[in-house]
Amino acid sequence: MRGIFCYAVANTNEEYRKVVKNRMTLFVLMALAGALAIAAPLLLDHFWKNDIKEGLFDIYIGFGSGLLAISVIFWFMHWRLLRNENKLKEERIKSNDERLVEIGNRSLRFASNMMIASMYITTLIVGLYNTILFIILLINMCVLLLAYAGAYRYYLRKM
Predict the structure, then answer these.
(1) Which of 54, 79, 118, 139 measures 20 to 30 Å from 150, CA to CA?
(2) Which of 96, 115, 146 is the last residue in one of the domains?
(3) HEC readout, 69-136
(4) Cβ distance 93 to 9 under 8 Å?
């Protein structure tokens, strides 16, 4: 199984090396986001004496820890990939495989449709109890659909 963001058009190992380095930068940003998710409830609890619900505190720490750990692991995996020319070539060929790219595109389309459907159902249910959360979820759905429409028009002109 390939990751959602693991496809890149690179004809040479040097081009693919740049792609891998960009991914490593993304992993550093993800690790920082994880560290921030860990630090936020700790700082709120310690400095501002903000009363965070116990379950919510644990969720922040858990998600932050998971994001931080997986980012560090993936960064090291990519770092090792950059050091081995044969593995780099192997991964470059896999990332350009048209069959795998199409499978990834179809899977992403299916997952996007499921996400829109679940957001719609959640929005309808939450709307009965919390107006602010209802509006936030509605805005999220609109942003997703507008981003799709904008990206479609952009790539329609570009390709």
Answers:
(1) 118
(2) 96
(3) HHHHHHHHHHHHHHHCHHHHHHHHHHHCCHHHHHHHHHHHHHHHHHHHHHHHHHHHHHHCCCHHHHHH
(4) no
Instruction: State pLDDT tens for residues 55-69.
Output: 788 888 999 999 999
- Cβ neighbourhood burial of 36 (10 Å; 0-12, 13-18, 19+): middle
99: confidence class by pLDDT, cuts 50, 70, 90 = confident
Counted residue by residue, the chain has a size of 159
How far apart CA 93 and CA 78 sit, in angstroms, is: 16
Do 150 and 79 lie in a common domain? no
Compute the CA torsion angle 4, 119, 27, 1 (nearest 10 deg).
-30
